[in-house]
Specification:
Blueprint lengths: L2 E5 L2 H8 L6 E5 L5 E2 L8 E2 L5 E2 L2 E2 L4 H12 L3 E4 L5 H13 L7 E3 L7 H8 L7 H28 L10 H17 L4 E10 L5 E6 L6 H13 L2 E13 L7 H12 L3 H13 L15 H15 L37 H16 L5 E12 L7 E10 L24 E13 L8 H11 L7 H10 L3 E4 L2 E4 L1 H14 L5 H16 L4 H18 L8 E4 L13 E6 L2 E6 L8 E3 L4 E2 L6 E2 L6 E7 L2 E6 L14 E2 L14
Helix pairs in contact: 3-5, 5-15, 5-16, 6-14, 8-9, 8-11, 8-12, 9-11, 9-13
């Protein structure tokens, strides 16, 4: 019997081919083969029950012909796409696009690409799970409807070419909420007081005052008292603490740890993990479950015993904290824990090592440490405690497998309560409180997961989209909202706050989960949402256009007529525009620099409008009409330098 196995990636196909005997042919779909058309016209039949109209992905025609020919010569076809909702949807699309007969085509899935996992999957073929497929379809349709309705309104009310999204916009809102906290922050003064001391045995130590005075006078008073009174050890407290190992990685915790320890952006982490998975080194990397199979626990236990000794082993399993953790996936772990190193590139080797350390250490005993806190101070009742802290590891346990989590031992000199101390120096340093930090990429991933926004597979894409669309700038690992992001988020918060709230977004994820479980209908869910949502969008069509972003400083009057200036949003960000526009076209940069007015190079013969040469993202182009107007909304179409007309811009419609 001849069998055709279809997977998603060519690399995965090569790995699986090694595990299958004669009679098997493995081919790759190279991801999706059908999708909604890029143009929103007729993409979704709303009245007919939110029926999506799929098209073959551009460039996949030849590949599909090849797959169809291979299927025609096979006795059976096995759809072995990834073990998640998107993989289930791709399997269904292959079934439909290749016109496979149900009795000859089945679905198989495996969480890791190993010989044992693949062979086991071959013995358990099944039908495509229509509930999972419909849940993914509902997500795709929902995102399209929300994105196009909101984006179309933003084009009209803010600026052409901007976009919004069901999950992207709540993520941007989170960044802007933090940005507003930073703007509103008022720093406060405080003083940190330290004392350098020497013990009776001659050991040096530095202690810090447990109180931070809010005035220089209070700080000076404490320093003055400390310098004239003898010092002694007041109390010594020792506490033994237990440090439990971390659970194995989920998608979000892997992205966070890779960002913190390795400096990888979430999108980079997922790309590297994909390569490791396709090569058979790790289990599937899109999961929000830290659970391990019994077979995996056994393999990890063997690795712990052989490398660190049986006395360090403590087998355990972990449960997902989120009530809506998707499907019955395992945590991310090495396919073969006996291999401490894997991968072909330095990045792959580093990420694999991180995954190995987390998985193996999760099956080891807790570490124990001794925390010591020494309180000391001058012999005066009005002087608060000074303290110095120390710690030392008593038993390493799981830290043997994950040494980067250990931290440094801080050994304190041998001291006893009541022991006199000699003050060698004392000083107070004035400081100011600082605003909350902006989110890093890892921090935003953690926050999205905490609030139930999106799914593990979407976090990297969310951050990537925000950056590519100019809503945030990456400054190292920090995400900084741009002026464009500020304006778009403010507009959505003002007019569509309900739809980009945490509760609404998380509840919609729950409803999509219900569709996956077969507990909720596809059409009912979409119709209930879209009826109200679309009505709200239509009502906002009459809202005022958001063109003015507030008054500019009086120090920067219009360079042409001297009138006050207003902040506006242009393609390059915020700028100052004359408040009398269009009567006067004077303009300045956001920082106050004068923007020289554009001079027309002629007139368009059909309409008599002025013609300008502007710089675009693809080079110089000819603009017919006032350059301050939205491109493509009036006059003749814009033209390239070659004179070829570009299509008029159109607001999308579902």
């Amino acid at each position: 019997m001849s069998t055709l196995v279809i997977v998603e990636s060519p690399a995965k196909a090569k790995t699986i081919e090694k595990y299958l005997g004669p009679g098997y042919t493995v081919k790759a779909s190279v991801g999706h083969v059908r999708d909604l058309p890029k143009s929103n016209r007729n993409a979704i039949d709303i009245e007919g029950g939110f029926v999506p109209h799929y098209e073959i992905v551009a460039g996949k025609e030849a590949l599909l012909r090849d797959l169809k020919a291979a299927a025609a010569h096979a006795d059976r076809v096995l759809l072995a796409t990834d073990p998640d909702r998107e993989g289930e949807a791709i399997a269904w699309h292959l079934f439909e696009a290749l016109k496979l007969r149900e009795r000859a085509a089945k679905r198989i899935s495996f969480n890791e690409i190993t010989r044992e996992a693949v062979q086991d999957a071959l013995t358990h073929p099944r039908e495509v799970d229509q509930n999972l497929r419909r849940a993914q379809e509902a997500r795709r349709v929902l995102d399209r409807l929300v994105g196009y309705d909101l984006s179309g309104l933003i084009w009209k009310k803010v600026r052409y070419g901007l976009s919004a999204g069901r999950v992207q916009s709540p993520a941007l809102r989170i960044l802007m909420e933090r940005e507003r906290e930073i703007r509103a922050f008022v720093p406060e003064d405080y003083w940190v007081i330290t004392a350098d001391l020497r013990s009776a045995g001659g050991a040096n130590l530095t202690a810090t005052c447990t109180e931070e005075p809010r005035s220089a006078a209070d700080a000076e008073r404490i320093v003055d008292l400390g310098r004239v009174h003898p010092w002694r050890v007041r109390t010594i407290t020792e506490t033994e603490q237990k440090r439990s190992p971390y659970p194995p990685f989920t998608t979000s915790t892997l992205q966070q740890a890779a960002s913190t320890r390795l400096g990888f952006a979430p999108s980079r982490t997922m790309a590297i993990a994909q390569k490791l998975y396709e090569a058979g080194h790790i289990t599937y990397m899109r999961t929000d479950s830290p659970t391990l199979s019994q077979a995996a626990i056994g393999m990890l236990a063997k690795a712990v015993t052989e490398r660190f000794g049986a006395d360090h082993l403590e087998s355990k399993n972990f449960k997902a904290k989120a009530k809506n953790a998707q499907e019955a996936h395992e945590a991310i772990r090495p396919s073969n824990p006996a291999a401490r190193a894997a991968g072909t590139t330095d990045e792959q080797k580093r990420l694999y090592r991180l995954i190995w350390e987390r998985a193996v250490s999760s099956q080891m005993r807790s570490a124990r440490s001794m925390k010591t806190r020494v309180c000391l101070g001058p012999e005066h009742a009005e002087v608060p405690d000074f303290a110095v802290n120390g710690s030392r590891i008593l038993y390493e346990g799981w830290l043997l497998a994950d040494p980067a989590a250990r931290g440094e031992d801080v050994e304190l000199p041998a001291l006893r309560e009541g022991e006199p101390l000699t003050l060698t120096d004392m000083h107070a340093e004035g400081k100011q409180t600082t605003p909350p930090n902006r989110y890093s990429e890892a921090g935003l991933v953690k926050e999205l997961e905490k609030r139930g926004i999106g799914r593990p597979s979407t976090y990297a894409t969310i951050i990537k989209n925000l950056a590519e669309r100019g809503y945030v700038e990456k400054q190292g690992k920090t995400l900084v909202p741009t002026d464009v992001g500020d304006v778009v988020s403010s507009f959505l918060e003002q007019h569509f706050g309900t739809y980009i709230s945490d509760s609404f977004t998380a509840e919609m994820e729950d409803k999509l989960d219900d569709i996956a479980d077969g507990a909720r209908g596809y059409e009912d869910t979409l119709r209930t949402f879209y009826t109200t949502f679309h009505k709200d969008v239509v009502e906002k069509e009459g809202s005022e256009k958001l063109t003015n972003l507030g008054a500019a400083p009086e120090a920067y009057p219009c360079p042409t007529c001297g009138a006050p200036m207003l902040y506006k949003l242009g393609r390059g960000g915020k700028f100052m525009s004359c408040s009398t526009y269009p009567a006067c076209t004077g303009a300045r940069t956001e920082s106050g620099g004068i923007i020289e007015p554009l001079a027309p190079i002629g007139t368009y013969p059909e309409t008599g409008e002025p013609v300008f040469v502007l710089d675009g993202r693809y080079g110089p182009y000819v603009q017919v009409g006032d350059p301050k107007q939205v491109k493509g909304t009036r006059g003749a179409p814009s033209r390239s330098r070659s004179g070829r007309a570009s299509p008029r811009a159109k607001t999308p419609r579902p």
